[in-house]
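Reply to dn_fold:

You asked what the input looked like. This is it:
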Amino acid sequence: MYAITARAETEFASKYLQQLCKHFAHKVPSTYDETSGKVEFPMGDCTMQATSGVLTVTCHSEERDGVTQMGQIIDKHLERFAWKEKLELTWENTESAVQEA
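and this is what came back:
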């Protein structure tokens, strides 16, 4: 399993979380409320958390390319939704492939 995580400091964390999840819900399963969300992309899942001033996004996939694709999708959409702030997410690997024994 591969995972990447990114954080963005913004006073509009909840707004962007809901906007992203609502947008993706038109094409893929998506659930959300004011503080958390989950989007089920074909290549894996993304979870989002909005806390006081911080949006955190974590993507999980069985394939390295899956997390890369999801990160690019989130970046592209957040760039459009948060254009006034010019938010940028810096993605970090948070897990590497786990081999089953």
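The first helix runs from residue 13 to 24.
Hope that clears it up.
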